[in-house]
Amino acid sequence: MKHTILGIFSILAIALHLSYAPLVAQTPLDSTVRPNIVFVMTDDARFDEFRPTGAPDWFVAPNIERIANEGANFTRTYASTPICGPSRASIYTGLYTHQHGTTNNGEQFYDTLATIQNILKDQGYYTGFIGKYGNGFPAPNEFDYWVDIGDDELYKNVWIKVNGVSVFVSGHITDAFNGYIDDFFDSVQVHSDKPFVLFFFPLAPHTPNTPRSSDAALYNAEVAPFPENFFEYPSLYPDFYREGGSVWVKDTAATNKFIKDRFACLIGVDDNMSHIFNYLDSNGQTDSTFMIFTSDNGYINGEHRMRAKALPLDESIHVPLFVRYPSWFPDPVVIDNEILELVDIPKTLLDVAGVPDTFNFVGHSIKDLAEPDTMRHFAFYIYEGSLPTAVYDVPDLRGVRGFNEAFYYSNCDCFTEEYYDFAADPQQNQNQILNADYYQNVLSHRQILDSI
């Protein structure tokens, strides 16, 4: 199935970033004018699992929704490599996978690269991390305060690391997070002369999506948003879509329970968020704090009888992104005329902190992307499936996702190209690659991929 890699994925528009310039020492900025930062990222949450982006009315998550409803909701945000390790490495380094070296889970990004957390710390921020740091990454000991739940992806009765010390969590990790969030803010009070940044990366709703016992039956009586396209692709699909770890094996009943359990896990995250808001509100710091909420990638819940992530289905690559920061977004706004990528987050945090980008980050600041003129017309997609470290048994994949269309190429001996028209086919059900009506569109997208 797999062939040799097509070549290193390099984008002409960002070619100058491939030679990493030396880091420039900078004087920390005045803490009185710098906002605090709270960055919340769920694990595998889909775009449509929150009410501001299409979740059922019965899933009420007031604290998560508050970020979107009192700020900006960027409805076209994508993970360029939708799998835990590579996606998180892009968020830390501000680079695409081929640039930072983490092309699959279990790999570490190059230790010569600047990371956004170290930059903010060097600029005088008091830094905290709570949750899942990566997949195969070393402990996040660059943070001033850190809690790392490791890579076992278990919800109950687990060993974790707290500032380098092994701690056994008896019970559900979501409940434990509340205590660690409160502890972090206690430590913030000790360092009140500094602005703070908190990365809170909970495990939910990653499989096995085990909710707290108090939440387990919460949505039993509700109707789950069951996939309307719970059927295999009828034609013109790559063979590996029906092989190995990509195949969905749950029946209808099990699928319904799986989906409800994901929501039950996510309501626990909303409980965690209430502790964050309680601190900010009670200390009068909510409006002076930059808050961003997203997910490292999505998850395929049986659409086309497929599962998981990594693959170029919208359920896998499309993620929510909400920002609350009145200095930038004084009024609630939904931004759907711009395409964002998760690699934009580090550049955004530099902008928030007032730090010039001398680190060769390849993204754009969300502040700039929110301007009326469209800066990015498509998101890049890449997965290195041919490498020995590949998590999924697929070939190398490349593609672009535009506003209403997507083009994907598979480097394999099966059917190799896919083209989707989302305006006519929002569920990505029919590959139009052989449809003569789309011939010119396909040519233009081939040219885009040929240039990168």
Report on the architecture of this protein.
β5 and β6 form a beta hairpin. The strands form four sheets. The protein has a ten-stranded mixed sheet with strand order 7-6-5-4-8-1-9-13-2-14, sandwiched between helices. The chain has ten helices and 19 strands. It is globular, with a radius of gyration of 21 Å. The chain starts with 35 loop residues before the first strand and ends with a helix. α5 runs parallel beside α6. It is 24% helix and 20% strand. With 452 residues, the chain is α/β, with parallel strands linked by helices.
Per-chain topology:
Elements: E1 36-42, H1 62-69, E2 72-74, E3 77-78, H2 84-93, H3 97-100, H4 116-122, E4 126-131, E5 145-148, E6 156-162, E7 165-172, H5 173-190, E8 196-201, H6 252-282, E9 289-295, E10 300-301, E11 307-308, H7 314-317, E12 318-319, E13 321-324, E14 333-335, E15 340-341, H8 344-353, H9 366-369, E16 378-383, E17 396-402, E18 405-411, E19 417-421, H10 439-450
Parallel strand pairs: 1-8, 1-9, 2-14, 3-15, 4-5, 4-8
Antiparallel strand pairs: 2-13, 3-12, 5-6, 6-7, 9-13, 10-11, 16-17, 17-18, 18-19
Helix pairs in contact: 5-6
Brief write-up:
It contains 10 helices and 19 strands.
